[in-house]
Every structure is written in structure tokens, then in C-alpha cells.
Amino acid sequence: MQLLLNKVAIVTGASGGLGRAIALALAAQGALVVLASRNKEALEETQRQILEQGQRAIVIPTDVRDEASVQRLVAETLQQGGGRIDILVCNSGIAGPTAPLMEVKLDAWQETIDTNLTGPFLCCRAVLPTMVEQHSGSIILIGSGTGKHPLIGRTPYAASKIALVGMARTLAMEVGPGNVRVNVVSPGPLEGERIQSVLKKQAELRHISYEQVRVQATSGSALKRFTPVQDVAETVVFLAGDQANSITGEDINVSGGLVMV
Fold first, then answer.
1. What residues are annotated to the active site?
2. CA 86 to chain centre
């Protein structure tokens, strides 16, 4: 049985990596998935993979930092999705600069905050009237273990991601009476190309080898490994569906035990 049959889900940052995995997992459970990011060509590749599964997906190029672009995303979703929005996954994010705070430029700080924090704010604000009116909805913000388990030189990213926890908890209280749930999923270091780039910059900043940084990135976790992207995607599927009806305001760490250490 498909857990999300006939649900309409928006996934931002669905052009690759974790966002693509989340979109594929939601579609596999029967949801109509609206794919959003700035990269139309990459979104179409995600759509192609979903269609090959025999599932449904719509591409709507979107800049989550831009209010008008987010409003268009929601309006087109409502038009093509039968007037419903059941699930919002705010996954769009950038790594931001890797440098000591005293060396971070204001424009790099602002770009990180605009994408990782203001983007989710704009998306949540845009979908909530529909969710409250239909008296149902699940919002999932993709956070990070960074900030809870500090990573040197990553202050802008850590600040933007840890702020999502406060946002989710407060918003959950605001919209709970409307039967709308809001949660954060915070991955640990994920397998894939993005973590390789982050670790290389860490090695340069700390003047140690890439292999040393890679070992350190997993040695603090209980499972001693990077987190598979699919594990995060399946957690999102769970929170999106009716089986998580009593879960809201939570920050769920999918980190192999890294955050608890």
C-alpha cells in the first residue's frame, strides 16, 4: 500500500543529491511531487527518473530566496495539483563559506542565510493558508547536525540550520490547531559529492590531509560511517504521512549517533 497516495508534495532543492532522493521516495509512495530549484535541466532529470518509476512529477523552476518566485511555485502547484498542498519539504540549501567568522564576508553570510533560512520562511508562509484551510499538512525542514556537533569554519551554515529548529518548534505551536505539523530532519554527514567538497575545504582550513578530515567526520558517530541519503529520504516519507500524525515540533537527527556524542 502506498503511504502518500493522492497527496501533493513540494520538494525544494530537488535537482540532485538529497532533494532528488526525497522526491523519488515521496513519488514511490504515490505522491504527486512538485520539483523546485533554480536548475531546470537537473529538475527535469529528477522528473525523468520519477516518470520511469511510473509515478508523477511536475517541474517548476523556483528561486526560494525570491518572494515572487515562491508565490508562483505555490500558485502553479495549486493549479496543477487539484487545489491541494499536503506536504512541503524545504531542502534547498547551500554550504556557504568555509572560513573563520572574522574572515567571512557579509555577502557570503547573507547568501547563506537567504537560501537556508529565509527560503524556508517564504515557502512555509506561502503554503500555510492552503494547509490551514484544508485542515491538514506536513512541513519538513531539512536541517543539519552541523551546529549541534560543531564544525570549525562553518558558522554561517551552522547558524542558518540550527535556526530552523526554533522556527519549526514555534511554527508547530502556531499552526497545530489547524492540524498542520512542522518538523525538522537533521542529517549527519551524507554520502555523496557535497560532503567531499566540504571536507576538502576543512582540510585546507585546518592544514591537515583530506583523509584525516574524513576519518574525523565519522569517528565521533556511534555507527562510524556517513549517513546514506536514502535513510534521510525515508525519514521524510514517514513524517509526511499519516503514520506520523502525532509528531510535530520535533528535530529528528539522522546522523548515525553523531549528534548525541
1. 157
2. 16
